[in-house]
Amino acid sequence: MTDAYDDVWAKYFDSKEDLVLPNGDGPHVVLLHGGGYTSLTWCLVTAILKENCTVHAFDLRGHGQTHTSNDDDLSIDTLVQDTLHVLDHVIPPKTDGADQENPQTIIVGHSLGGALGVRVAATGRVPSLEGVMVIDVVEGTAMASLKHMGAILERRPSRFRSYKDAIHWALHSGTVHNPEAVEVSIPSQLKQLEDGSLVWKTDLASSAK
């Protein structure tokens, strides 16, 4: 049985076939989080994108679960090299075959991640790069970007008694508006001290000095 769409298609094309792609195929989307955040800030976005794309999100050095020999080095050059090393492992190199063998790559960065994404793209080392999307990016180097956050950092609590308190603060301060997103992402940004209190994993105030 055919419909009007099939009739129009047949007028201009010789054949039409339905192609079903498994989840995870499609463009490579690289998600770079902002300063002080973690890859889990992309949790709700990833849940949608992964249906049609291969999504890559990782914690920058000094953030989340990433540990290096110098977690305090948040210089833009270091972050660019870190990102390129990760992408070398997760995105296959470009080949000389048909286009479908070279999935498109799109970089999406928030704040510091946006500034980082632009510089990563400028290296020319990302296979089949098709575009860069920046969200709330602050111009300048990574360190300069952090300095613009001074007023915000001064207003946020330096420690919390519990994860529940931190989540409550994030929601009511307007830092995060989605309850599910805040419950997933905020705990990953904190570390627990010996007295049981919680502080931010990444000391952005010190990094900005």
Brief characterization of the structure:
The protein is of the alpha/beta class. It has a single domain (28-92, 101-206), classed as Rossmann fold (3-Layer(aba) Sandwich), CATH 3.40.50. It contains 9 helices and 7 strands.
Structure description:
The protein is an alpha/beta fold. The chain has a single domain (28-92, 101-206), classed as 3-Layer(aba) Sandwich (Rossmann fold), CATH 3.40.50. 36% of the residues lie in helices and 14% in strands. The protein has 9 helices and 7 strands; from the N terminus they run H-E-H-E-H-E-H-E-H-H-E-H-H-E-E-H. The strands form 2 sheets. It has a 4-stranded parallel beta sheet, with helices on one face.
> What proportion strand?
5-15%
Tell me the name of the CATH class: Alpha Beta
| C-alpha termini separation | 69 Å
Q: From the alpha-carbon coordinates, what is the Rg to the nearest angstrom?
A: 21 Å
Q: Structural class, please?
A: alpha/beta
Q: What is the level-2 CATH architecture name?
A: 3-Layer(aba) Sandwich
Counted beta strands:
7
Spatial strand sequence of the major β-sheet? 2-1-3-4
How does the overall form come out from the CA principal axes?
globular
The chain-level mean pLDDT equals 82
CATH topology label: Rossmann fold
The level of helicity is 25-40%
What are the segments in which pLDDT stays under 50 over at least 5 consecutive residues? none
Order of helices and strands: HEHEHEHEHHEHHEEH
Biggest sheet architecture? 4 strands, parallel
CATH superfamily: Alpha/Beta hydrolase fold, catalytic domain
Count of distinct structural domains:
1
DSSP helical segment count: 9
